[in-house]
Amino acid sequence: ESYDMAGHDTYMHKEITEQADAVDRVLRGRIDDRFATVHLGGLNLDAREARSVRRVKILGCGSAYHAGLIGAQLVEELARIPADAEPASEFRYRNAVVDPDTLYIAVSQSGETYDTLAAVQELKRKGARVLGVVNVVGSAIARETDGGVYVHAGPEICVVSTKCFTNTAVAFALLALHLGRIRDLSVADGKRIISGLRRLPEQIGEIMKLEPEIRKVAAEYAEAKSMMFVGRVRGYPVALEASLKLKEISYIHAEAYPASELKHGPLALIEPAVPTVAVLPEDELIDKNRATLEEIKARSGRILAVAHGEQEQADHTIVVPRNEVELDPILMGIPLQLLAYHTALALGRDIDKPRNLAKSVTVE
Ligand code: AGP
User: Fold this and answer.
1) CB of 340 closer than 6 angstroms to any ligand 1 atom
2) Is the ipTM of this complex over 0.95?
């Protein structure tokens, strides 16, 4: 992949459309079909060490943190290791208890984000084992960590992250599968996840065909004074990332909430001028999610759903291809990158260089 725009008007658009290839690259050479296992050469964590991990703690900022939230869910689901993600920028300031049985993972596109680097350095000083899930090879965080997984998204120039976010989530799926197969994930489930991972590039290609439809929807939503993004469990990190993306490049105020939390307060904001984007994977929570849509509808809220089939409560549904439930969040974020892009375009924003933001925050 090159640094020129290759015929696109913005780097963001170029990078969104590169995602099928980028995902192909992060998977390449890493899967062993015979045993349904994964080779991650740079991990520096043998099977005995991997079995002794009691907890996984993922640290990153902004989109890297959101990809880490997807990563934590994948580690819990596939490897059954308790896992969570926290903004590195918070972690480094709160004198966290550093536990020797916890595997810490720092996530960063640039590998130079100061808050994440400072968290890694503090953890290392306290004797913790820290891995990196990093895009830029040889960057500061890649050098300071004990090992890790390169994300291989290729150069990401646009200030907002798109292909690196997606590839980071896929890298976490590989890591979770690796840990799972060393622990209790069955061969059959390993094969199911591998076949899902292999379907991703083609399914991303199908999502790209939705761009004209998403452009039309974006033109409508560009009028909104504020937008609400909701999702439950697997859908929630997708909602958080989509809301950040919209804010960063369109400057429309947006909030992301777990769908389950709406009734505990934010429902008060719902009115026709505040549309909701709902992320609804076809998983065990779909009925709960539909009930949330009813609650929004009852308050005259407009709804844009991202789902695996038409949602009758929604004003518009973007129907995306279905993968394995564990991997669906990876795909569901992509149409919402396009939504943010086309909303910002409709508003005439400087998409590659949004005001007040830098690609990599290397200072405190
Ligand atoms: C992404 O859209 C943002 N510009 C920002 O949140 C970014 O993800 C964050 O600053 C972390 O950067 P990093 O991945 O290079 O560490």
Assistant:
1) no
2) yes
